[in-house]
Design goal:
mainly beta; four-stranded antiparallel beta sheet; about 35% strand
């Protein structure tokens, strides 16, 4: 924390301390793995604070099964942080495999969002929002930023996205 020491005409010495981030933006670069549902970023935001997130990379999703390898399967198993609207037909139609409540944001057969995309939330129980490749906006609440993947079965995913988070200082 920066410190300012000032001497006054009355003989008093004033010591003033202030946070290093006052008046400056802070950038955080990190890796977000896709084989866990959420990653805590250690980035603290305040309600109304400008924030931008940029993500890059491609990850392997939906584990390849032997029968699919032997008989062919046309589902693209590599996605970027924008996710995909191409979801295996049997995942969307077989009631015993569908888990609509498991998607952090409704996807596939159940909703308007892409499956397997980069998501965010502020606080461990905050509402989930779409990030994709790029997001710029203001935090709707105060708390720590979390990033994750919009998937019902993240355990079979492989790889990670690289992410840059910029939090602008508030006046």
């Amino acid at each position: 924390m920066p410190v300012s020491v000032t001497w006054s005409l009355t003989g008093w010495i004033w010591i003033v301390m202030w946070p290093a981030s006052v008046g400056a933006a802070s950038d955080t670069n990190l890796v977000v793995p896709v084989d866990v549902p959420w990653t805590e970023t250690s980035v603290q935001v305040s309600a109304g604070q400008p924030i931008s997130i940029e993500a890059a990379g491609r990850v392997r999703v939906v584990g390849l099964k032997l029968r699919e390898f032997l008989f062919g399967y046309d589902f693209d198993r590599w996605v970027g942080p924008e996710g995909t609207y191409l979801w295996p037909r049997d995942y969307a139609t077989r009631a015993d495999r569908r888990q609509p409540a498991s998607f952090p944001l409704p996807a596939g057969h159940d909703g308007p969002h892409p499956a397997l995309c980069l998501l965010g939330k502020i606080g461990p129980d905050g509402p989930v929002f779409f990030v994709g490749r790029r997001l710029a906006g203001r935090a709707d609440r105060s708390g720590r930023l979390w990033l994750g993947v919009n998937d019902v079965a993240w355990q079979d995913n492989r790889g990670s996205w690289t992410v840059r988070i910029r939090v602008e200082a508030t006046a």
